[in-house]
Amino acid sequence: MLSGPIPRHVAIIMDGNGRWASERRLPRPFGHRAGMKAVREAVEGAIDAGVEVLTLFAFSEENWSRPAPEISALMDLLEEFIAKEVAELKEQGVRVHVLGDRSRLTAGGRAAVERVEHETAGNQKLSLNLCISYSSRAEIARAARLLAEEVLKGTKKLEDIDEEAIRAKLYTASWSDPDLLIRTSGEQRLSNFLLWQLAYAELYITPVLWPDFNRRTLVDAILDYQRRDRRFGKVTAS
Ligand code: IPE
Ligand code: IPE
Ligand code: MG
User: Fold this and answer.
1) Which of 36, 68, 80, 134 would you label with 160, given CA atoms 20 to 30 Å apart?
2) Domain residue spans in the chain?
3) Fold of 9-134+177-226
4) pLDDT, tens digit, 9 for 90 and up, residues 161-192
5) C-alpha dist (Å) from residue 58 to 71, 156, 233, 237
6) Calpha distance 147→151 (Å, rounded)
7) 101 classed as catalytic
8) Is 14 near ligand 2, meaning CB less than 6 Å away?
9) Quick one: angle between helices 28-49 and 68-91, nearest 10?
10) Is the pTM above the cut of 0.90?
C-alpha cells in the first residue's frame, strides 16, 4: 500500500493505442478496444491509492479529423464501455462526468453519456471525468464567451473578470487542478489537454502504451510524484 502524499487529482493522456495495435499487426481499433481494460485498471488503481479525482483524455476535438471508420469504432466503444461498466462504477462509488463538446456525439453516444452521469450522480468515492470531444483551447474560448454573455446581460461587471471567474466557467470548475499528469506512449506534449488547469501539475511521461497501462504503472507514477519538490514559484523553506 502507498504511504506518503497522494495526488488528489490525477489526469491522464491515454495515448498509444494505435501503436499497440500496429506492433501486433492489428487494425487500430483493436488497440482502442484493448485500451478499455486499462481504463478499468486506472479506476481501480486510483480508488486503491486514495486519489479523489481521475480525469482521462479519451478523444480530442482534433481526433474528429481521423478516418471515419476509426471515429465510428471509437464512438461504438464509448457506448459499449458505458453499457458494460455502469453497474460496476455505481457499485464502486465512482461518479462519472463527461467533459467536452457533446453536441458532436451521435444521439446514441449522448444518451449513453447522460445515462452514466445520471446513474452515478450520487457517488462520492472517486470522481471520474472522461474528456470526450474535448480541447482545452475550445474550453477556454467557451469560458470567455459565457463571461462575455454575462457582461452583456449586465449580471457581471467587467472588472470582475479575473482568473477565478475564468476558472469557474471551465468544464473542470468543480475540482481542484490536477496534481499529477501522466502521459503514456512517451510523447512529450500536451496535445491541447487542460492547458489552464495543468499550470503547476507534475508531469510523468512513461513509454508504456495505453493498453499496457495497469495499477502498477499508476503506483510508479505516484511514487515518482512523491519525490518531487512542488514549489509553485516560491522558494522552499530551509
Ligand atoms: C490514443 O491512442 C487514443 C486516442 C487518441 C483516441 P492513439 O489512437 O492516439 O494511438 P497512437 O498514438 O496512434 O499510437
Ligand atoms: C491525445 O492523443 C488525445 C488523446 C489521448 C485522446 P493524440 O494521439 O491525439 O495526440 P497527438 O496527435 O499525438 O498530439
Ligand atoms: Mg496518439
Assistant:
1) 134
2) 9-134+177-226
3) Undecaprenyl pyrophosphate synthetase (3.40.1180)
4) 999 999 999 999 999 999 999 999 999 999 99
5) 12, 34, 31, 39
6) 6
7) no
8) yes
9) 30
10) yes
